[in-house]
């Protein structure tokens, strides 16, 4: 029996960060390389799981049209999963997202509908809801769908626990839909309540693709603040500088939200002794080349 693409979602590498960590504290930072998923990001996990579970419940069937608001990675992952499983996909996103993201969605056959930068993800979510109400398709709704965090409860959390042999002390994740941090927290806290769960959000005014500081009325319904022990506000420049350092000093080519999460993990490693800190590198850097964030003049 030969495997299919579905069989290669998850089980991503967990690698030691070697040169960026303050060695004096004895803490270890481990990076989970989610860009190794078939569609290139951590969002492959919930995208596939949400479709599979909706199909098992009879909520959708192949040939149906799916609608989703996205800032990029979930859209690409859903477009891949839809192509694989026989669904049509309509994706709504702000028009300031990178060209690579838009082109990737189109390559998988998705229809892309853009809202303005000013409308942002809030506007994209509102339009997606309107389209569903008009009967244009079915929305999986990553922001309120419990299958989003459950994908990580059943895969990301157990993988990290096994790979660290239960020695993990801190888990760090950027927060967008919050599915990754919610589901992984749920699993790790069941295994060891002492594991510290640290979320990363942009500071006021920062624009970091893939992570958000949501207005209260748009806070994802799947988010439970009790599952997060600490939140670190991240500046855009710090996230971008760390992202570039990851590529230059560690060979880890990732996006800006991964830079923000890594910056937070490195901060923790300098604060605590003999910790085992795991952070999510949620996608690959080639998804952001057209934005100029890797240009030499931007590096410090």
Automatic annotation (TrEMBL):
Top-level taxon of origin: Bacteria
GO molecular function, one term: cysteine synthase activity
Name the record gives this protein: Cysteine synthase
Residues with N6-(pyridoxal phosphate)lysine modification: 43
Protein keywords: Amino-acid biosynthesis, Cysteine biosynthesis, Pyridoxal phosphate, Transferase
NCBIfam families the UniProt entry points to: cysKM, cysM, PRK11761.1
EC number of the protein: 2.5.1.47
This protein's encoding gene: cysM
Family designation: Belongs to the cysteine synthase/cystathionine beta-synthase family.
Residues bound to pyridoxal 5'-phosphate: 73, 176-180, 257
Catalytic activity, reaction form: O-acetyl-L-serine + hydrogen sulfide = L-cysteine + acetate
Named cofactor requirement(s): pyridoxal 5'-phosphate
Start and end residues of each Tryptophan synthase beta chain-like PALP domain: 7-283
PANTHER family linked to this entry: CYSTATHIONINE BETA-SYNTHASE
SUPFAM superfamilies to which the protein is assigned, alphabetical: Tryptophan synthase beta subunit-like PLP-dependent enzymes
Organism in which the protein naturally occurs: Thiosulfatimonas sediminis
Gene Ontology biological process terms from the UniProt entry: cysteine biosynthetic process from serine
Pathway named in the protein's UniProt entry: Amino-acid biosynthesis; L-cysteine biosynthesis; L-cysteine from L-serine: step 2/2
InterPro entries noted in UniProt: Cys_synth, Cys_Synth/Cystath_Beta-Synth, CysM, P-phosphate_BS, TrpB-like_PALP, TrpB-like_PALP_sf
